[in-house]
Amino acid sequence: MKTSEEEPKLRLRERPVQSVTVRIPEEVLDSLGQVANARDMSVDALMRYYIGQGIRQDLARLFADRMFDTTAAVLARHLHSEEEVSLILEEIREAASAR
């Protein structure tokens, strides 16, 4: 049985922040307010959440693209048939998009 001392603790570290000004259409800001209220959070917190989520998705996509390009380069070095390389890369694309 775990004691309270063994329970994992959430440790948030302070990070430097910078203020920015963003011009947003009023109806978008109204929608953000509705969603924020439904989630019981502030509009600022919701915007930070959306930005963070989008950045993580984009970074994951960039990493996947880099891995795919590296895979293609390695295959091209080791296989002498361009057709074989293309077939393998197409199979990888199909398998990745099926997930």
Could you give a quick summary of the protein structure above?
The protein has three helices and no strands.
Fraction of residues in helix: 55-70%
Give the CA-based shape.
elongated
Total beta strands: 0
Mean pLDDT: 90
Helices and strands, in order, run as HHH
**Category from helices, strands and their pairing:** mainly alpha
Cα Rg: 23 Å
Structural account:
There is one protein chain. This protein has helices spanning 26-38, 43-78, 82-97. With 99 residues, it is mainly α. The chain has one domain (26-97).
Give the arrangement of secondary structure elements.
Elements: H1 26-38, H2 43-78, H3 82-97
Helix pairs in contact: 1-2
Provide tags for this entry:
3 helices, 99 residues, mainly alpha
